[in-house]
Amino acid sequence: MDTYETLKERRSIRRYKDKEVPKAVLKKCINAARLSPSAANLQPLRFITIRRDLSDIFECTAWAGYLDWEPTEEEMPRAYIAILKEKETGWEMDAGIAAQSICLTAKNEGLGSCILGAIDKEGLKDLLSIPEGFELKLLVGMGYPDEKSEVIEDSEDVEYYYEDDVLKVPKKPLDEVWIEHG
Ligand SMILES: Cc1cc2nc3c(=O)[nH]c(=O)nc-3n(C[C@H](O)[C@H](O)[C@H](O)COP(=O)(O)O)c2cc1C
Predict the structure, then answer these.
(1) Structural domains in the chain plus CATH codes
(2) Residue 155 has what pLDDT?
(3) Nearest residue CA, atom 6 of ligand 1?
(4) Number of the ligand 1 atom closest to the C-alpha atom of 96
(5) Which of 35, 42, 95, 117 has its CA 20 to 30 A from that of 66?
């Protein structure tokens, strides 16, 4: 898929099928993250892939803060990528950029994903044996999508919602976010 199309089509997915995520896809995602922009090219990030003990990881996550809803264990992601950053080195932004690279690569491979920042970092630290000198920044949950999500244009609101089992995600209008300077 064309990069712009992939960007437009990617949505956060919070319900997944019970289907294993191939290791080759995770490898591709990590490679995309590895090749992403990095402030001063310091490359402070490391990536842990997780395909086993998924329920334990799922317990350390929180979903869809605007909704009185969260996915069941049956719907949980079938893989995670934990994004770690070397303490004292590099910029925080690198983690977000890497997360987006992972999500877009996953999308191109037919997978859904969701960046997860509302995570129990202490719990995950124990489960993931994070190497000395590194801190956990983000998790990306992924798997084969078991839901549809679509953009709502020109909405006044920012809160997403389910309607007829489809997740509707409001995005601000282009005119509002684009400030032309000359
Ligand atoms: C840094 C960051 C942290 C996020 N953390 C969570 C999270 O903990 N749980 C969750 O369900 N979604 C999380 N999201 C997903 C956002 O809710 C989602 O990107 C937003 O609602 C827009 O939807 P879209 O990704 O489909 O465009 C996070 C997104 C970002 C960028």
Answers:
(1) 3-146 (3.40.109.10), 147-182 (2.20.180)
(2) 83
(3) 116
(4) 1
(5) 95
Could you give the residue ranges of the DSSP H alpha helices within 39-148?
54-58, 93-108, 121-128
Residue nearest to atom 31 of ligand 1 (CA): 115
Q: Which residues line ligand 1 (CB under 6 A)?
A: 11-12, 14, 62-64, 114-118, 149, 160, 169
pTM above 0.85, yes or no: yes
Q: Which two tokens stand for residue 45?
A: 């990030």
Largest CA distance in the chain: 54
The rounded Å distance from CA 116 to ligand 1 centre is 6
pLDDT range class, residue 1, cuts 50, 70, 90: confident
Assess contact for 139 and 61: CB atoms under 8 A: yes
Q: Tokens 């910029």: give the residue.
A: 91
Q: Round to whole Å and give the CA distance between 11 and 112.
A: 8
Predicted confidence (pLDDT) per residue in 90-124, tens digit: 999 999 999 999 999 999 999 999 999 999 999 99
pLDDT tens-digit readout, 126-156: 999 999 999 999 999 999 999 999 999 988 8
